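Final report, closing paragraph on structural work. Over the funding period we assembled a curated collection of sequence-structure pairs, and we close with a single example.
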Amino acid sequence: MSQIASRGQLRMSFLRYALVTVPAILLLGTISGRASGSGYGNPWFDALIKPSIIPPSWVFGVAWTILYILLGLVLAMILHAHGARRRLLVGLFIFQLALNFAWSPLFFAWHEVGWALALIVAMLAVTAALIVLLCRIRPAAAWLMMPYAAWLVFAGLLTWQVDTLNPDARDLVPGSVGTDIELEL
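Its predicted structure, as stored:
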C-alpha cells in the first residue's frame, strides 16, 4: 500500500473541516449583518433612493446564505490542502472574509457609502488574488469562489449607484422632516 490515507479517509477529513467552517462562516456573516442593521427595515437604508436594479430583500438573504456556504466549503478545502502555500491561502481568505464582515457596519451602521465602495474594490482585489492562487492548488475551490466574485461585482455596482443617487447619504437622517405645520398666532 503506497498511500498514507485512503480516499475515504481524506474525504472524511475534508467533511470534518466543512462541518466547522460552513456553520462558522454562516454564523459570523449573520452576526455582522444583524449587528449593523443590514437591509430593508434599517431606517437610513429605507430612506435612500435605491437603484432600479436592486433586488427584493429576500434575494439578499438567499444569496448570502449560498455564498457563505460556498465560502465555508472553500475554507475547508484550503485547510484540507497541504503545502507551503496553505498558510498564505488561509491568510488571504481570512483577510477577505474580515473585509466582507466589515462592509455591513461601514455601509448600514456608519453610512459611509463611499468607503463601502472602496472596501468592495479591495475585497474584489483580494478575492481575485485568492482565486488565482487557488487555481494552482485547489481548482475546485477557485470555481466555488466565482459566484462570490460575481456577487461582489454586482454589490459594487449597487453601492456605486446608491452613492451616485444619494450624494449626501452620510448626512441623511430619516424621520427628521416632519409634516407638522407651525402656526404663528
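The helical segments are 7-35, 43-47, 57-80, 86-109, 113-137, 139-165. Residues 26 and 66 are 9 Å apart (CA to CA). We thank the funder for supporting this effort.
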